[in-house]
């Protein structure tokens, strides 16, 4: 079914008018002064998390228009098509059914296959966990076959078994694999080769290198020490791997951590906790599928994304998880959002007259505060920030006594920092306020007004805060699914295919043709820069 693109909706022009009349001049400080219950009005509950949208440049008339836009674009029927397994990834002729991977038995398409595959993968994970002979698991994969598992294993560290180390290798750069192999014992190591296609250059190169290392170390039992997770199990077999966990083409790479690609997660946290991760994501699926749009958190976030990108013209969004375990979340979200929605044509191939995916970037707090937050506060661009706060820490059973007390106290510092940043971004500081402050480090030669200008902040900078009670498998599952659906919402309104990734193909093809040239030195037909650089980079060149 054809759905109108956002700019073809009557609400689009109304939103443009809304932006001109009040959106551009929207002031958060004024909004809080005028709307006493703004926090209550603009904060929402979703499974496992609480989302405060009140520090965003949004009001009731704007939201009403955005919801109208969503109706005009058939968001609900697009969502239905997703859950039903219609081939919405039309350029690859595929359904998009990551939601089926976390549905309970009988609750979604392909249920029998999904449950069978899950059981088999979890049974294998448990057998590895029970095998005292395996002390190290090296997971080799890239993109969606790396970022999700690596991020989740890191985030759920308190749930992992301290006796087994998980390593993730993704880059074709040997500086990734080499330090991981150092100190490993081939007889005690399991390699998981993860590649949906089993054709990805980086993964195959690392897998070959790992196999060669394994054999050189005297390793003999490849069948016991190498397994694959792939939708191309025939290629895995041809590679020499006999234990493979397969999955289906309707699982997109960046949506695959819920499938057998999650094997390292299951090895790290166990079958029961893996099921909790799935359950958290499923709860968010239900929220997305069933909650009225005006309280539907992924819908609200997706609408806000469109409002900021296409009307305010903000080109970037920063993610600041105030939890060290979530430090890889921004990298994970970069693939999820930018590979999904970094598109320039609509579903019919027409060039889009408006912007799509923002740049998504960030770093764990408080570290980011001491790096780029300067720019967020005083730079010339407005960059909405997304704070993620976790109320209760889990420092681990080994943390006891005075250390436990100290770390609990540090957690209060962490939370205070998180609150302070969103407060500062919104409040700002006027030149007038700065004039009344002492500036101990300023040179005496500078006028007071000059110093005050340097020390003032524009404020009115928007942010969202997501609060989790605790970072558990369940809450993390819900958080990830929230982001998946939010990306779906903005992509659906932009009228794009969020599920293909043709943009990575050209570079891959050119790489294949440049690789032999690096050996031969042949620069014929290359542009001057590429030819010059190739010559410079050749060994002996
Ligand atoms: O970067 C392109 C891409 O196809 C991603 O979408 C995917 O997650 C990644 O490469 C890895 O692909 P595969 O799992 O097939 O090795």
Instruction: Calculate the terminal CA-CA distance, rounded to whole Å.
Output: 57 Å
Overall body shape: globular
Question: Which molecules are bound in this entry?
Answer: 6-O-phosphono-beta-D-fructofuranose
Strand tally is: 11
- Biggest beta-sheet profile: 6 strands, mixed
Number of H- or I-type helical stretches: 23
Based on CA atoms alone, the radius of gyration comes out at 25 Å
Helix content: 40-55%
Detail the poorly predicted runs: none
Coarse structural class: alpha/beta
Beta strand %:
5-15%
Kindly report the average pLDDT value.
Answer: 96
Q: In which order are the strands of the major sheet placed?
A: 1-2-11-10-8-9
Fold and architecture overview:
The chain has helices at residues 10-23, 28-34, 38-41, 60-72, 75-84, 98-101, 111-130, 147-155, 174-181, 201-216, 222-225, 233-239, 263-269, 271-290, 297-312, 329-341, 373-378, 401-427, 431-435, 448-454, 473-494, 505-520, 528-537; strands at 43-46, 49-52, 136-140, 165-169, 189-194, 226-230, 243-246, 316-322, 359-362, 385-392, 463-470. It is α/β, with parallel strands linked by helices. The strands form 2 sheets. Strands 1-2-11-10-8-9 form a 6-stranded mixed β-sheet, with helices on both faces. It has a 5-stranded parallel β-sheet with strand order 4-3-5-6-7, with helices on both faces. α16 links the parallel β8 and β9 (359-362). The longest helix is centred in the last third of the chain and has 27 residues, at 401-427. The protein is globular. The termini are far apart. 43% of the residues are buried. The mean pLDDT is 96. The structure holds 6-O-phosphono-beta-D-fructofuranose. 6-O-phosphono-beta-D-fructofuranose binds next to loops. It is found in: Cytoplasm.
